Amino acid sequence: MKQEKYGLAALERQIQRELKYLNYPTENWVKPVVGSKGEAVLDVAVIGGGMCGMAVAFGLTREGISNFRIFDGGNEGCEGPWVTTARMRTLRSPKHLPGPHMGLPSLTFQSWYRTQVDDKAWEELEHIPRETWMEYLRWYRHVLKIPIENYSTLKKIIPDGDLLRLQLSHPEGEFDVLARRLVLATGRAAFGGVRVPDIFKDVPKELYAHTEEMI
Ligand SMILES: Cc1cc2nc3c(=O)[nH]c(=O)nc-3n(C[C@H](O)[C@H](O)[C@H](O)COP(=O)(O)OP(=O)(O)OC[C@H]3O[C@@H](n4cnc5c(N)ncnc54)[C@H](O)[C@@H]3O)c2cc1C
């Protein structure tokens, strides 16, 4: 893909200007609360740093809720299925799909693509290759400075009075966070995990794979 650093840098400056006019990041207005033992409590914990989790982060920041954290179990820059388990080569949605723009035309996929590649390539593009969509999502994370904490997988949700205690695993060890609200933006994992029909139970594992597995 052609790199037009100056074009993209100019677009990023424009986005920063637009965000400033929107008073972004809005000052936090939520009163802090603490746990029963005086522990810090998040106003919102977001699980999943794919496009929905990032849109939630952007929305919270615009609304003046800054005491949140986003956790994603996947590798940095590989959130969602696009460059891991996806098999289709392109998105199904038409290319005009604006992406998680939240009302800012400069943040749309089209805006990024026209700047990053060019107008002619945009006109000729039929469907968005999934790797290109991932590249756009990485840029979205970068331009909005979305603080995703990767390699952190939610294992358990435990009610704790009016709060929720979340147990997460990380390569360096397990940890807990307390949160007032929880957003599960976990994509297909939200459907309860991988299930293989019983008909496969006697079939050798090397002959089949679930769509959630790497091939
Ligand atoms: C090839 C392909 C083409 C597609 N085309 C389209 C399309 O055109 N239009 C469309 O709308 N959709 C399309 N989809 C569907 C697409 O998966 C979703 O639209 C999109 O990924 C949803 O975003 P999301 O943020 O909800 O979830 P995801 O992008 O799936 O992100 C969820 C994130 O949650 C993380 N996660 C899950 N469980 C945990 C946990 N326990 N702890 C921590 N992190 C966790 C995952 O690591 C992941 O990064 C397509 C999918 C594929 C594979």
Structure ligands: flavin-adenine dinucleotide
- CATH superfamily name? FAD/NAD(P)-binding domain
Determine the fraction of residues in helical runs and give it as a percent range: 25-40%
- By DSSP (H or I, 4+ residues per run), the number of helices equals 5
**What's the CATH class, please?**
Alpha Beta
Shape: flat
Order of helices and strands: HEHEHHHEEEE
Can you put this structure into words, describing what you see?
The protein has a single domain, classed as FAD/NAD(P)-binding domain (3-Layer(bba) Sandwich). 27% of the residues lie in helices and 19% in strands. Strands 3-2-1-6-5-4 form a six-stranded mixed beta sheet. Helix 1 runs antiparallel to helix 3. The radius of gyration is 20 Å and the shape is flat. Flavin-adenine dinucleotide binds next to helix 2 and strand 4.
